[in-house]
Structure formats: C-alpha cells, structure tokens
Amino acid sequence: MLTLLLLRHAKSSWDVPALADYDRPLAKRGLKAAPRIGAEIAALGLRPDLVLCSGAKRTRETLDLVLAALGSPPPEVLYDDVIYMAPPTGLMQILRRQPGEAATVLVVGHNPGLEELAELMVGKGDEELLETLEEKFPTCALAVIIFDAKAWADIAPGTGTLTRFLTPARLT
After folding, report:
1. pLDDT for 166 beyond 80
2. Binding site residues for substrate, as ranges?
3. Using one digit for the tens of pLDDT, what is the confidence trace for 141-157?
4. 4: left (phi > 0), else alpha (psi -120 to 50), else beta?
5. What domains lie within the chain, and their CATH numbers?
6. Is there a contact between 112 and 124 (Cβ–Cβ < 8 Å)?
7. What are the boundaries of the signal sequence (predicted)?
8. Dihedral of alpha carbons 4, 147, 74, 171, sign
C-alpha cells in the first residue's frame, strides 16, 4: 500500500509585482494556513517518508512550515525544479521513479499540474470528496490518495483512491 500526499503551496503574495513568479513568497494568509495543514497531517498520522518539492520560493516556504508542524525526525526532502511547471503526466513519471521503501510521498507543487495529477490518478473514493476535488484545488489544499501497489513504478492513472481532501477553510 502506497500513500500519495499532494499539497498545493499556500497562498502566495503579489505585493511586489516586479518579482518573478518563481520567487514570490507566501502571503500572510499562506503563513497561517501551512502550519495548520501540517498539524493536520501530523494528527492524521500521515508523516511522509519522502518529500518532492518544487524549488519555487512559495513551495519551499510552505514545506518549511509544514515540516515544523510535523516535528522530528524530518523526512528526506528532494527539491526538483521540474515540478514547478510539470504537467500531470510529468509529475506521474517523477513519482514512478521513486523508491518503494518510501511508502508515503508528499509532493508540494503548483496548479494546474497538481490538481490535474490528482484527477488523473484517482479512480475511486467518497463521492463528496471526489466532487470537492473536481470543483477546486485551492492553495494549501491536501489530497490523500492511496494505491494498492508495492512500488511507485506500478502506479497508473485511475488506480488511486481519494481518502481525504483537506482545505484550510475546512479546518477552521
């Protein structure tokens, strides 16, 4: 059994229009939401074995706040700039290359790729969760997808089960 945690970065700031998109930091709202989602990940016992994170500033800041909420020991973290603009099939290929000993993998990335990856991989789940996922994948939302597989190389589109879809708004 493998668990995929898809986390969209927290709300980013547009306060400095001259900043490149890649370099935008988190907004105040994002700085509040990321620790809350991290605490929920910890409370649910979903500690990742491996984290794959976009190199963009807002994803790094989101991850730092989530990891602080998770506490020790920290998981292995790999930063990959390909995640920044990757389409869902590209993200799936990155996942399929991960070692089998990482039973729970957290991907911290961006839309539209992350939302499209969730929709691509999920084949079943609670109807209400599926509808919420299809409606919107907001900032700092977390999709939890379970695969009945022993190796990441074996995951395929439509084979995942959406077990949770958490948003900061629903945690209040």
Report:
1. yes
2. 58
3. 999 999 999 999 999 99
4. beta
5. 2-171 (3.40.50.1240)
6. no
7. none
8. positive
In sequence order, the 6+-apart residues with CB closer than 8 A to the CB of 110 are 8, 9, 54, 56, 59, 83, 84, 85
What are the Cα distances from residue 31, in Å, to 19, 27, 37, 42, 168? 19, 6, 11, 18, 11
Token reading at 77:
């973290």
Q: Is 80 exceeded by the pLDDT of residue 172?
A: no
Integer Cα distance of 21 and 12 in angstroms:
10
Asked if residues 123 and 159 have their Cβ atoms less than 8 Å apart, the reply is yes
Calculate what percentage of the chain has a pLDDT beyond 90: 89
- pLDDT tens for each residue of 63-88: 999 999 998 888 999 999 999 999 99
